[in-house]
Amino acid sequence: MLIVPEREIANLMTREAAFEAVQKVFAAMASGDAYNFPVVREAIGHEDALYGFKGGFDRAGLTLGLKAGGYWPNNLEKHGMINHQSTVFLFDPDTGRATAMVGGNLLTALRTAAASSVSIAHLAREDARVIGMIGAGHQAKFQLRAALEQRSFEKVIGWNLHPEMLPNLEEVASEAGLPFEAVELDGIRDADVIISITSSFDAILTADQVSPGTHIACMGTDTKGKQEVDPALLARATVFTDEVAQSISIGEAQHAIASGLIAENDIAQLGSVINGTHPGRTSAEQITLFDGTGVGLQDLAVAAAVVDLAARNGSAIEVDF
Ligand code: NAD
Predict the structure, then answer these.
(1) Is the domain of 207 the same as that of 277?
(2) Closest CA to 219 of 140, 148, 161
(3) CB under 8 Å to 170, separation ≥6 — which residues?
(4) 207 shares a domain with 166
C-alpha cells in the first residue's frame, strides 16, 4: 500500500493534472463508465462535526475508492488545524485490496477548482474577458487561480458578504497581473464568467444581475439547504452539472426543482458536452450555468493521479498492508 501524506500533495499535484483528471472522469460519468455511490454525511454528535463518505467506481480508469472526512468547526481554535479534514482511500478493483491512502485536504480544493475550470473551458464564451467572483474564502482563491487559465481574462471583479476577505481575490488577480475591482452585486453584470463559492443558505445573486452570454459556475452549494442564486436564474439558463442526482438533492438546482421552475431532465451532465453528445453553448447570448456539487469520483481521480506521480518520484511511503 502506498501512502501519500498531505504535506507531499502541494509538491506533486498541478492545476493542469487536476483539470485533466476531472475532465476525464466527468466524461466517463456521462458515458456510463463511472458512477458515484450515494453520499453519506452524518452529524456525529461530537465536536459539532459533520463526517461522511463520498465514493465511486470508474470502470474506464479502474479507480475504486472513497473519500472519508468532513467538517470539524473547532479545529482551528482548539488544535491549530484546518476545519475541513479528509483522506482518500483507493482499492484494487480486481481484488478489493487497499492500494493507497492519500491526504485529501489540498486535493479537495484542487479538484473543486478543476470542476469549475472544466465548465469554463467547455461552456464560457471564447471572448470572455471579465471574471466575477462571489465569495472570497479558502476555496475562492483556488477557484480564481484555475479559472484565470481558461480564457484571456483582463479583469477580476468580486463581491463578498464579508468585504474584509476581498484582498484574497485581489492577491490572486495581482499574481496573474490583472486588475481587481470590488463591486456591489449589481456590478457583477459586467462579468462574462461568474463563480459563486460561498457557504450561503440564501440566494445572493438575482436572475437580472447576470448578463446574457454569461457562464456561471455555482460551486458553494453542496448540501441540502445551501443556496447561492435565485432559482429564476436556473430557469433562464441552460443548466449543467457534474451529477444530476446530486444537483437536484444537494446542489444549487434543489431550489429550482422544489419550486417547479425546472425539471430534472432540464439538467445536462457536463460530461456529455465533453463527450460531444450535448452541444453545450449554442449562442453568444445564452446563459450557461454549471451546478458543481462535488462528487466522490473527482476525489478519486485526483488522488489516483497523485499516487502515480508520487510512485514515480519516490515520495510515496510504501507499507506492507
Ligand atoms: P470559507 O469559510 O473559507 O469561506 C466562506 C465564504 O462564504 C466566504 O466568502 C464568506 O464571506 C461567505 N459567506 C459565509 N456566510 C455567508 C452568507 N450567509 N452569505 C453569503 N456569503 C457567505 O469556506 P470555503 O472553504 O471557501 O468553502 C465555501 C463553500 O464551498 C462552502 O459552502 C463549502 O461547503 C463549499 N465547497 C463546495 C465544494 C464542491 O465540490 N462543490 C467543495 C468544497 C467546498
Answers:
(1) yes
(2) 140
(3) 156, 180
(4) yes
C-beta separation of 289 from 240 below 8 A = yes
Q: Is the Cβ atom of 294 under 6 angstroms away from ligand 1?
A: yes
Closest ligand 1 atom, residue 115 Cα: 40
Mean pLDDT, to the nearest integer, of 259-286?
A: 98
> Rounded distance, CA 256 to CA 240, Å?
13
Question: What does pLDDT average to over the chain?
Answer: 97
Q: Tell me, in angstroms, the distance from the centre of ligand 1 to residue 238's CA.
A: 24
Q: Identify the CATH number of the domain in which residue 271 sits.
A: 3.40.50.720
Count the neighbouring beta carbons within 10 Å of the beta carbon of residue 208.
12
Domain containing residue 95: 2-108+297-318
* Residue 298 dihedral angles phi and psi, to the nearest 5°: -60, -45
Model confidence over 122-134: pLDDT tens digits? 999 999 999 999 9
Q: Which of the residues 67, 141, 155, 224 is marked catalytic?
A: 67
pTM, whole model, 2 decimals? 0.97
Same domain assignment for residues 168 and 153? yes
Pocket test for ligand 1, best of 199, 206, 218, 252 (most atoms within 8 A of CB): 199
132 and 218 together in one domain: yes
Q: Tell me if residue 67 is catalytic.
A: yes
Same domain membership, residue 182 and residue 71: no
Domain assignment of residue 121, yes or no: no
